[in-house]
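Ex. 9. Protein: Putative TIM-barrel fold metal-dependent hydrolase.
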Amino acid sequence: MSFIDVHHHLIGKQHLAGMPDWSLELDKESMDRMGLTNALLSLPVAGAPEQTRGINDMIAGLAAKDPKRYGMLACLPSAYVDAALREIEYACDTLKADGFCMPSNASGIYIGDDRMDEILAELNRRSATVLLHPTKAGGEIPSLLVTDLSTYEYPFETSRAMIDLIYRGKIQKYPNIKWIVSHAGGVLPYIAYRVSTVAQENKAMPLTSDEVMSSLKTLYYDVALSTAPYVFATLKELFGTSHIVFGTDAPLRYEGPVTESIQQLKSYRGFDEGEKSKIMSENAKELFPRLR
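Predicted structure tokens for Putative TIM-barrel fold metal-dependent hydrolase:
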């Protein structure tokens, strides 16, 4: 049975400090042990144009070594609009990328910002699939006891980026972009009702409450770090199993916890076998036709 990981990173030599050892061979061995058949390699960065081109060439080179197993999500120099447009063309036409991985903000510019419109318009024209990945918030973060941003700030960051994108009407303006939201949408599913009521109470909002909820339901939600039963139940209730995809956050999330997440999905009684098959691979195949 196919088991596709849409949220799967690589670690380049320049990123090894403080990171787990990584190579394509080690990754394939780990995937075999866990039962993952395919993965979309990505790096959630938005650097300078030259740096981004080098990263995309590196990802493409790694994926090309085992194309039956790996695909690639290209990154973009999102703070440099003209360069980003060139990189979309290069990634799609030359590297044959399966989609893109974009951080929630690039140098403090969030994906819903009007300065991103030319980039979104081109992604829309190409009917691109985009994995939205959180990064450090575009502002100061208060000093708290828990300093690991992945614990709480990244889910909040994912949510604020998507809420801004939705409130600005960009989901409706660029309907051909297929968005995958990392980590089950951050906190978005749990505040969806509250998010929709803002449009009802604030007459200056460009969207109605129904339009906000409709926009939320067009998104896809990966379950990296989000495989608890109550998360599954919430996603199914709000969005249906056709909009849930499997992700791991490997190798930043180690093999043991990922294996546990796989078992949590397989053993969850709220999904029937057909629904589990959708989440494990069929929904991803719709988003990434090459993996069919």
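Check your answer against this statement. The mean pLDDT is 94.
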